[in-house]
Amino acid sequence: MSYLPLTENDRRDMFETLGISSFEELVRSIPASLRGVKLDIPEGLSELELQALLERLGRKNLTTRDCLSFLGGGSYDHFIPAAVSQIISRNEFYTAYTPYQPEASQGTLQAIFEYQSFMTELTGLDVSNASHYDGATSLAEAALLALRQTDRATVLVARSVHPHYREVLNTYLKGTPFRAVEVATLADGRLDRADFESKLGPQTACAVVQSPNFFGVIEDLDGMSDRLHAAGSLLVMVCHPLALAVMKSPGEWGADLAVGEGQPLGIPMNYGGPYLGYFSAARSLIRRMPGRLAGMTLDSEGRRAFCLTLQAREQHIRRERAASNICTNQALCALAACVYMTLLGKEGVREAAEMNVDRAHTLREKIAGVKGFSVGTNLPVFNEFVVRSSKPFAEVDKKLRAANILPGIDLGAFYPELRDHFLVCATETKTAQDLDRFVEALKQC
Amino acid sequence: MSYLPLTENDRRDMFETLGISSFEELVRSIPASLRGVKLDIPEGLSELELQALLERLGRKNLTTRDCLSFLGGGSYDHFIPAAVSQIISRNEFYTAYTPYQPEASQGTLQAIFEYQSFMTELTGLDVSNASHYDGATSLAEAALLALRQTDRATVLVARSVHPHYREVLNTYLKGTPFRAVEVATLADGRLDRADFESKLGPQTACAVVQSPNFFGVIEDLDGMSDRLHAAGSLLVMVCHPLALAVMKSPGEWGADLAVGEGQPLGIPMNYGGPYLGYFSAARSLIRRMPGRLAGMTLDSEGRRAFCLTLQAREQHIRRERAASNICTNQALCALAACVYMTLLGKEGVREAAEMNVDRAHTLREKIAGVKGFSVGTNLPVFNEFVVRSSKPFAEVDKKLRAANILPGIDLGAFYPELRDHFLVCATETKTAQDLDRFVEALKQC
Amino acid sequence: MLISDDSRLSFEKGSPGRRGIRLNAAPLGAKGLRDRLPAHLLRKRPLVLPEMSELEVVRHFVNLSRKNFSIDTHFYPLGSCTMKYNPKVNEWAAAHPAFTQVHPFEGDDAAQGILQVYYETEQYLKAVSGMDRFTLQPSAGAHGELTGMMLVHAWHESRGDSRRRKILVPDSSHGTNPASAALFNYHVVELKSNARGRVDLDELRAHLDDETACLMLTNPNTLGLFEEDILEITKLVHEKGALLYYDGANLNALLGLARPGDMGFDIVHINLHKTFSTPHGGGGPGSGPVGVKKFLEPFLPRPLAAKTGDRYHWVTDPGQSIGRLRAFYGNSGIILRAWVYIRMMGGPGLLRASQDAVLNANYLRAKLKNIFQVAIDEPCMHEFVLTIRGAKKQGIHAGDIGKRLLDFGIHAPTVHFPLVVEEALMIEPTETEAKEVLDHFVKVMGQIGEEMIRDPDLILQAPHHLPIHRPDEVLAARKPVLSYRDLLREKMLAAEGAPVSP
Amino acid sequence: MLISDDSRLSFEKGSPGRRGIRLNAAPLGAKGLRDRLPAHLLRKRPLVLPEMSELEVVRHFVNLSRKNFSIDTHFYPLGSCTMKYNPKVNEWAAAHPAFTQVHPFEGDDAAQGILQVYYETEQYLKAVSGMDRFTLQPSAGAHGELTGMMLVHAWHESRGDSRRRKILVPDSSHGTNPASAALFNYHVVELKSNARGRVDLDELRAHLDDETACLMLTNPNTLGLFEEDILEITKLVHEKGALLYYDGANLNALLGLARPGDMGFDIVHINLHKTFSTPHGGGGPGSGPVGVKKFLEPFLPRPLAAKTGDRYHWVTDPGQSIGRLRAFYGNSGIILRAWVYIRMMGGPGLLRASQDAVLNANYLRAKLKNIFQVAIDEPCMHEFVLTIRGAKKQGIHAGDIGKRLLDFGIHAPTVHFPLVVEEALMIEPTETEAKEVLDHFVKVMGQIGEEMIRDPDLILQAPHHLPIHRPDEVLAARKPVLSYRDLLREKMLAAEGAPVSP
Ligand SMILES: Cc1ncc(COP(=O)(O)O)c(C=O)c1O
Ligand SMILES: Cc1ncc(COP(=O)(O)O)c(C=O)c1O
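A: This is the predicted complex of the input protein with pyridoxal-5'-phosphate.
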């Protein structure tokens, strides 16, 4: 029973103040039939025991320190400067609540403002919110926004959007009058523009395109936004944020909304969470944006000050008429991304992005030369690409794991048509030796 | 070339301000023959590369997470609450200098004051300094103090004092008119009082006794301080600080000085450092104490304030007449000890100490029953004790290491008479399973 | 000067060409970026990013942090937010590389440690709530509520009942409740509370009909009052074929004392970032697991954590699942912290936590009622609400009291709800605050009570001792400056003679 | 209120019976403490220790930390202390369990990682200093100096020369130099500096004789000036059979520019906690490796790090070693940080660091000489000294300027030495400070310069914006209160009518 400061003396004094002789007198409003709960939870541990137990559990996880991993697919093993965790571990950051009291939260507020600035820079759009749960939910909210904004019923979604994201979108739409319609992918991994054209219609609220898409391919979206805007629809893009340091930005492609997963910006893989849904939009959509926004203003003495703003969009003010129900978001992860971007800065961010492009293309070239494996395409990618194995992937996976290598993600699990294809990711963390070791191991398959 | 903020523009502007056209103009006072240094140091790494390299090196160390260790002998595997490192990692603590400016250092100063309070509590003596380099150097300075205070020439040192401490003391005395004389140890590990009596003489400045001593034995020092004081000498004790939570304190034994290693109080083993020399003394010795002292006073408005005090003892004021040359000490380790003591508090410190006593005695009883091994003594110990092996220790050590157990310290390396004896330590971190696993492994020897 | 008064953005610091972290960007392959990506796929608009040294960055953020209030620096009695202590061993665990460096697609066998944490956390939440099965996917309370609405819908649908489009919520409910229902296109009906701040049974009966899909309830409610008629309420609702949703934000009042499952709730969300001590992080991340009764299990999101023999694994059979609520499995790092907390506290410790939370709140209530009016003056659970409507004649609002508290190093109570109480101050001390802290708070509140009479301006102008005075929120909303680019644009406009904003 | 004004000790907080960290103290053996330890070996005097919850402890220390200035929060131009940035990757490395959880007696084969760090650090220090062999045992600069004195003694002794009991130090030297010599029972002779702040060759000649054991020198010296005659000096000293000791505290001026080994020094210490970026920790720990020329290698402390084939190991042959300087091997955690720093910077980076340190100092000197008098106005190395002796007529001392700087969020320069300059402000910006910071400092110094004329009291009463005003140091020394027990005793005495101290 750690963490509880009341002593027996304290309790006695407080009972006296309250004029009660037992705790029960305080909870008389709970019906008797509800009482007598037996909590089936083991006795508490000391911290010494807990630390030992956690070390034991930890040894049952395979970490990317212990093996050579080429897994990506929405969660990436990127370099994180040591300063990031040291900064976000500042007690004043991580034990603060949402900055409802601006005078007592200028630190958090300014950091959110800077985070928003980074995301608008990367996406090339006008505004960014303070974060969403993750990339998938961010996308779902973007689709809902588009549906409301256009007052239409359909969302076109590329099949090359992350399968989990599409699943989440479908979950969000199930039971509503809205629905998602899939747009096909070409054999080389690109969006099927013809299929898109054929599905674009008067009920199309938006089209959702991921780039680099789930197969790693950087999409050429030439003409796409014009086409959509002409049809009264919006373009929603899902992007790896680090890729945006070199890749044409959603803003430049004419997108109205850009959403996605901010995890690559200084957040560990954490077995899938907590991550960071980013959400950026064109200025015209601002009053429908979900989530918090930090704004810059002046205080009563004319000094620069930051506060949450446009709160009339939010649930705590507007209740059922709010733009979204989101309250708690992923603030600390947004702070991590903000610190990451600040540390790497203009040149560092570009360098990191270029290294991804280099590693992925270099590795793809190498694997293309290995017998028994072929690469789906030579289209430009950011940091991942599809490999086809002539043997069952399960076998390849097993052999490589035995060599302490995680070769990639089994695409057959998500796309029946891609049996024995796998998604290989190589970030800036991979060295020449790493790539060679991988290729050698593939050769042994 | 990280960490350097001057840009080429900055340098140009600064050159202009200085009216110079090359850096060389600033360093003309360096004789030309000294210039042209070629630094034989590899090119800088990126942090990404550094992190990977350090992980690689780290895998070449055997940690006590990876094995079951019974090593002690001056460095102990004690439980450290997670809060300790989180607190001492506060930027304002670890990147501050010595608190020479009290107005800008109340945090550090108050923490030192509290640390001093803890050490005087534990040792039962009147004053404690702000820390010394480690237990060994702390002892050497205590001996020097005694020599100066008594104006005598000899230090009696029990053979059961940590061998490294005795070596350091000898180093400090070599070349001075002073010398250390060894006092023998009985076969059961206790101080040989008869030998002590025979060596106590008119030139004895002090006697140095460790308790629990290097063999783990808690010394019975009954009458010792009276004997020494009657002879005009001082008693210096060296103690495991956590043992003092249950063990009769130096103050209670009548010691004049208590010194030792504060590492058990929340400081990791760190392959031997940085550690924490603690140094406590009777009030009468205060003006000869080495090291910094934080004192409580009032500020000009009558508020409580802390500052360094009695600085006239120190080198930056008194130069060659200072009580010691110490300047930089082990402040951050003292802070760790302070945080540790505060977190565990009155009851926690006692619990931790009792668990050591329990583990060590329990394990000793178990090992006493293993064929081929015998325990030197049944005298009370704190957390370590001597085991004698009938086989060569090197063999035992090798076999146990193969079972991923570090059985203890080879005493033969320090005491020729103790060939095939080893020192076994069991702290509060050891569970019943750990002890059993060890005993089982010994049985297999 | 301890706290820097510099409010420049990172973008306004640094210098062109200055470098923080650099990478060794030498390509491994033979080609450069431009050989890899064709020009038309390359970014044209240059990134405007800070160019700062690592020291500058560290100073920037450390100084920002020092401008915050937080649990670890200040008493933070923010009602409904359960600002309890965030144990440091939780943080140690969550930062442990054996848990941070695990990729979600490694496969179950490579993740047995974290899978065990998922599995056991579910068992503990079941024990605490009396529910039968949990999904740990939802990332916050509101996300859990949305999940709940989907489950409600799926259940009714599965029975061919598609008329039910109405969700009932009390007027004291948290904003996320109606917002979650509305996000799912449900129709929200607000129930007026009775004079004792509880659900009015007549009002409930009046609105309950066969179009009602669900009643959402917080219990204890946002006034910190336990719904005494809860068994009657759940009975009424069930009789009408509707479901009951439990907003678990206030579960910290009830650990080991009573369970929503036993009360008759069908769906529950729990805020791990409240009751289970995970930090708020300046607004998140949190975790909002959703638990259901057996009959709703088929509808839960997939995958679900399971254990077969000694092996932990994910169950992915779709069943009648509503589908996935987020990518991957959940906010693992938060779930891990909650697991550590539960293991540290143990069953008896959790009970004691709730008892102390209730005791602390009642103690404060008893002390403060001599100074301020308690909205509903009865024994409360873990929190209670004061009203200062009496001070409106002096122009003092609840928010002003909150601002004045900041001057004393105490965070403001919640002031923006519950809407049913005029000028509400919702106060939740939590069980981790010592009696001395409560006594100090009472003393300060007493002083503020005097100031209200003696010197109202002191309160209206508060705070006086913080880096900024009150910000102009109207200006912020009228002319939103939401990014550095906005600021540059504003500055350009200003330079061109347009009216100035910050 | 951001910074708490609470100055209670931990001992004055908490409450009897309250618990922070508890252990599961159930004994494994059959017996309790009293069965294990006889009564006469047990402690009688009860421990007076705080009884606080973990939250109280965290708040206590976090709030204490917020009362500090530090590099990461403030510009800290403290001369002679090289307050450069402490890179965060150093801290990450030093906190890595693969290095913290290693016992010093595990044996060389179980510690190859950290042994490699010891070995390579020595190689890098050799490269930087031009020395032939290093011991990494000394735990700080002063500890290195003491080691140096022992080496000097051992060397002369080994040659049967035992008359040499005299150590020469310039009057500008740091206090540890004479103190270290004296601690080893050497006789200290102080050399008067010449008008240009350097060693006066005539003075040197006058004191050099065959009783001289060693000359200790800092170069650049504590005025930040390079000893131009260094080659002449070392020649003179060597000719007299004495040795030369180099106090490396100021080595940050010289990386890649010049090496003490090349200047003729025989023994060198290096402060890793200055030149090699390890943090000062509020006073320590540091590390002061000592390097020597070949002929002194046999005398170095043992063990020494070595590499045979691919294996790293300790060499323990006693040789003519002076013996051991501390337990185990050295401050490994500090040495590891320095190793990381050197690997990150690389050779060219280290050179650039020194160049920028020198440039920054000269830039400040050039700017500030318009406001204050520079003690010796010549190009300086990494630091320089101002004198404000001119302000003595207004009663303003160097220390007062330092206090006033605190009000602006700038740490005071060093004011307690060098003793050769009256009312000295020793300013060392280091290379990690940006030009904007220097410019800001100049602006503030300009303002203070004006205040000296306009409003001296503002300076004499400074600081105005910190948690305390100037503490009464006389009272502190007259009635030392050095522990909580002292405080209790003082309070008792006060209660009995004795005159009060804090
Ligand atoms: C009563 C109540 N319900 C729901 C929520 C929403 O939870 P979350 O912020 O985790 O989305 C809150 C949060 O403050 C709350 O207080
Ligand atoms: C010139 C000089 N020499 C020696 C020292 C002593 O070094 P340390 O504090 O590491 O013992 C210092 C420390 O400030 C110094 O500035």
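Chain A has two domains: 68-79+345-443, 82-340. The pocket of pyridoxal-5'-phosphate (ligand 1) is lined by residues A 327-328; C 80-81, 140-142, 174, 176, 218, 222, 247, 249, 271, 286, 288 (CB under 6 Å).
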